[in-house]
Amino acid sequence: MKSITPHDQFFKGLAAHRMIASIKEPKHIETALALRNQLSGVFLLTGHIGVLKGYVDVFKEHQIPVFLHLEKIGGLNTDIYGLDYLAKVIKPAGIISTKTNVVKTAKKMGLITIQRFFLVDTEGLDNIAKSLCQTEPDIIEVMPARIPEMIGMVKAFTSLPIITGGLLFDESQAQECLRNGAAAISSSKPELWKGSYSFQEQKKLRKFI
Known about the structure:
It is built from ten helices and eight strands. By secondary structure, the chain is α/β, with parallel strands linked by helices. Strand 7 (162-165), helix 8 and strand 8 (184-187) form a beta-alpha-beta unit.
């Protein structure tokens, strides 16, 4: 029987769950594990090279796709050698980065790539469009989430799934992002991980599985 790949596992999870736990403190790892049936994955934004594999292995044991935000991990070099070590030894489902060259290299190594963008003005939309032509990540993350109408503007020039997060304080704000076309919400607030989130574009995600 063909084993499920991390790519398939994550995108199938997105078809059922709209929330991704962004973990900024080790103490929240246990909370994420306890809520694993409500999450499509976790974004790891804490730790260093000495503990990283242990953290990743814990999530993999519980069948939770884990993504490493490479700019937030201490001691991890993001050159070709560091990414090769990441892909072959630590083995997360994928990575998150704001850097175009890092995303391009990680994708070649078989990792699911999420490119993070910050929208601070309308020029940010042009930057996203130009960057996507160069990198072609698997998913994009747009921040902050408190400008949900911008999700629709990004969707006008890309068919990639869009994750959004940042400055979310309650479930109604997260739901607004989903209504505007976000594939999922990323949040560092455990109280939001427990919410029930709906999604109207499940058919569109199937082509990525």
